[in-house]
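Thread: sanity check for a docking pose with A1CAB

Original post by kr_44:
Hi all, I'm comparing my docking run against an independent structure prediction. Below are the sequence and the ligand SMILES. Could someone generate the full complex and paste the structure tokens? I mainly care about where the ligand ends up relative to the chain.
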Amino acid sequence: MKIVFYGSGNMASAIFTGLIESNTVKGEDIYLTNRSDIEELKRLNSTLNTQYSYDDVELLSNADFVFLAVKPHDFDSLVERIQPHHNANNKFVSMMAGVPINQIKTKLQTSNPVARIMPNTNAHVQQSVTGISFSDNFEESDKQLLFDLLDAFGTSIEVEEDSLHDVTAITGSGPAFLYYMYEQYINAANQLGLSHEDTDIAVRKLIIGTARMLENSELSLDQLRENITSKGGTTKAGLDALAKHPIEEIFVDCLNEALNRSKELGK
Ligand SMILES: NC(=O)C1=CN([C@@H]2O[C@H](COP(=O)(O)OP(=O)(O)OC[C@H]3O[C@@H](n4cnc5c(N)ncnc54)[C@H](OP(=O)(O)O)[C@@H]3O)[C@@H](O)[C@H]2O)C=CC1
Ligand SMILES: O=C(O)[C@@H]1CCC=N1
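Reply from moderator J.T.:
Ran it for you. Here is the predicted complex with A1CAB included:
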């Protein structure tokens, strides 16, 4: 199977690294290109054994899956490269936030199958939650091949195309929202008495341990929280202070703004 990535940035590299490190695809079967950063392509060639080229005829020839991994605002420059040279074998897989399948087909002037995925950078540790949606003409056997690729870097959920906006907000951007929260937690913790180094290590371990509890425990979130909250104790005091702030409102606002932006990107 020949897989091409147009774009070798943050999201693409998380995915092709996952594909190679899980032995799902050999490096030599993955062809990378980007706008101009040839040093990055050479570095990836020496570390992952991936191929690279700026020759679109060579890239697209016999390519089974062609990942569109550029920012939405760079799609037009990508169209100039792909449109003249694509062929019937190419199944397109776009990870561009917000850009709809019909727009991709129209701009590329193609009736080839197109899938849209919305992964997240947890693909680096094979833990992406990836939403996926297919054009009507995507063959079942090709869907299965693509699901197998997605499994190499996490779990996938098939959704209606319109729901990809929700996936983008909740899990596509989600790691950034959680990192931001953790940053604030570390900043606040730094105002207590531990050294900054100890605080950083302690909070990282706290986050990892809490995530493992979520993974391994059968208890609900609120039960897990209750188990830490002694009557009249420290946790109750801290939670009561938190409840004075509009935390749910903050996240409603955050997710709605991300979702609205996803809708705007497709226009
Ligand atoms: N980052 C994330 O967490 C997520 C991102 N996405 C989506 O993934 C896409 C890529 O995002 P991200 O990886 O963060 O972006 P990056 O900026 O890290 O990477 C963008 C890549 O696109 C390349 N590029 C730009 N124009 C062209 C072109 N005309 N031909 C070929 N390559 C080109 C750049 O090349 P060069 O370096 O040479 O300029 C670079 O390799 C976006 O559409 C985003 O919506 C989806 C889910 C999560
Ligand atoms: O910020 C963005 O637009 C992309 C999509 C989801 C995560 N990063």
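The radius of gyration is 21 Å. Hope that helps with the comparison, let us know if your pose agrees.
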